[in-house]
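dude i think i finally got it to work??
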Amino acid sequence: MPIKAILTDIEGTTSAVSFVFEVLFPYAAKHLPDFVRQNAAHEDVAEQLDAVRRDTNQPNADVERVIDILLNWIAEDRKATPLKALQGMVWEQGYQAGELKGHVYPDAVEALKRWHQEGYKLFVYSSGSIQAQKLIFGCSEAGDLSPLFSGYFDTTSGPKREAQSYERITQSIGLDAAQILFLSDIVEELDAARTAGMVTCGLAREGAELAGHVTVDSFERIKPSTL
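look at this
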């Protein structure tokens, strides 16, 4: 069954892990406290603060307590949906101010453009919020790449290491799982996608091997029509 759609991870796949940990996370940690204080009464922010209270079973936590929880989650790299949503809001301000530019590997940029021209539907699945995903590609060092993509998925579709998440994404895309190629640098994610029926290809830019999956060190080596 021919590949018709390509679903890609971001961190470590299209973009450097260092960009996330050395640029985005520190930026969020620095700016999130004041952002929350200034916008706590705004509906979209208040909704996420309430979600933090629910997730930690601290219904009466004040704004400063919630900020402390969020900063601890950043330090732990916690995959918490309200944190990801708030980080996305903070990063949006940074991108709009020109203080941030999304990193996307040049080989990924070229391949994504080529696949789009060849008629493949392109999608993103990352633990970062959909808003953050759109910002990385929409405000990238290579320009606005957002027109290349047909959709985005985050942790609201489920954890990235569970097959059920990929089954939900498959239903949303509207194709047979065997028509979707999933790209990632994490074996457990690739395993989950394959269990859900997707075709997989691992990215190991340092030349390592992702056990049990076709593994390449560059987007240049990915040929969807042959997988």
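The mean pLDDT is 95.
im so relieved honestly
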